[in-house]
Amino acid sequence: MISAARRDPLIWACALVGLYGVLQVILSIAHGPPIGLDFDVLYPDFLVFLTAARAYFEGKLAIVYDIDAFTAFQNALYADHFHGTIEFRPFLYPPIWLLLILPFGLLAAPKAYLLFAGLTAAFATAMQGPRTGWGWLAVVTSPAAMWVVLAGQNTWLSLALFYGGFHLVPRAPWLGGALLGFLAYKPQIWVLVPLALLAAREWRAMLAMVAVVAALCLASAGVFGLGFWLAFLEAARDTATPRFADIMYNRIYSNLTSLMGAARMIGLSAGAAGLIQLAGAALSAVAVWLAFRRPSDPEARIAVLATATFLVSPYTLNYDLLLLMPAVVVLYRQGMRRGFLPLERPVHIALWVAPTVGVILNDQHVPLMPVVILLFGLVAWLRLPNAAKVELPSPARAG
Fold it and tell me: Residues 6 or more apart from 279 whose CB is under 8 A from it?
C-alpha cells in the first residue's frame, strides 16, 4: 500500500496542498506575508465562544442570546484583536456548549485558544489517528484543517466524537453512545446520529446517548438556569425567520457549503432555496436510514452519514468539511485496494481542496461545494456493499 501511494500523483498533489496550508497557518499566526487568502483576524469564532464564557463570569449571561448586546460585548473585550468594530457576531449554540467551554473563560484569549486547539486536536488524533495511520497526517494538513485552526472552530472536537463514537459502538456501545451524546453540543452535526443508531438497532448506544444528552441539558440548566434555555429556544426560533436568513447569507455566503446557499447564489428566491434544502434533508434522512438498516461496509456508511449531515443544515461552512476528511482517506484507500469507480479520484481531490477553492468560487457565485459533497456521497453509497464483514452487530445481537 505504501509503495502504491508513493506512485500516486494525486497523493503527492495533496501533500503539496497540505504543505501550502501549513505555511499559510504559520505565516498568518506570525503576521508574515500572506501567501493566499488574507486572514486579518485570527480565531474569530473561538472569540465568540470565549465571549459567552466571559459573559457568564461577569454576570452578563442575559446578553448571550441578544445579538446586538453580545456583539457589543465582544467589541469591548477584544477591540484590539479585531482591529476595529465588528458587527453581527452571535452565539448560536445551545447552553450545553457554553457549559463545556466555560473553563476557558478563565484564561486570556491567546492562552485559552492554544489550550482549546491543542486539546481538541489531540483528542481527535487519539480517537481517529491510530485507525488512519499515515492518512491522519493528510487530515491534519488538509485545507479544511487550516480553516479550522485559523477560524478557531470546534470541528476537531466534532470529528473526535463523531468517528470515535461510531467506531466504538460495535464493541463498546455504552461508551460509543456516550461520545455521540456529547456531539449534541452542535445540533447541525448531530441531527442524523439518532436516526443512524435507530436504523442500526443499536439500542444500548442509543440509551447511552440519550442519557448523556439529558445529563448535559440538566447540568446546563442547573448552572445557567431554565431561563437561559428558554432564551436559546427563542433565539433558535428567530434564526428560522427570513430576516435572519438574509443577514446570515449576506455575511457568510462565501463559506457556505449548503444546498440553500448554492441555490441563492445562482439567483433563486429564498423560498425556492428553502424547498431545495428541505428536499436535500429528506434525501439525506432516507439515505442514512437505508445505509444503516442493512449490513454494509461500516466505513462507507459512516461516510454516507457524514455527507448527509452537510445536506441537512442550511448553515454548514467550509471549515466543517474537516468532518469529511477521514472518510476521504478511508474511501481513497479502498479505491487503491479494490479499484476506483469511474471519476472517483477527481471527486476525492475536489473535496480535498474544496474548503479553499470553494470560497473563491462562491465569491464568483459558482457554488460547486454542494455538488462535490453530493458526488462524494454517491461514491460512499456505491461503496456500501463492497465489504463482506460488517463491524456493526446484527439485529439479533443488538437486541
Answer: 259
Instruction: Give the three cell numbers for residue 54.
Output: 466571559
Nearest to 95 by CA among 74, 65, 59: 65
**256: helix, strand or coil:** strand
Provide the whole-model pTM.
Answer: 0.91
Dihedrals phi, psi of 281, to nearest 5 degrees: -65, -40
Which residue, 87, 78, 86, 28, is CA-closest to 50? 78
User: SS3 breakdown of the chain: % helix, strand, coil, rounded to 5?
Assistant: 75, 0, 25
pLDDT at 266: 94
**pLDDT band for position 10 (cuts 50, 70, 90):** low
Which residue type occupies 187? P
Q: Give the torsion through C-alpha atoms of 48, 91, 87, 78, to 10 deg.
A: -20
Do 341 and 335 meet the contact criterion of CB atoms below 8 Å apart? yes
Residue 247: how many other CB atoms lie within 10 Å:
16
Give the Cα separation of 397 and 392 in Å (integer). 10
Pull the grid cell for residue 210.
440519550
CB-based contacts of 266, cutoff 8 Å, min separation 6 = 365, 367
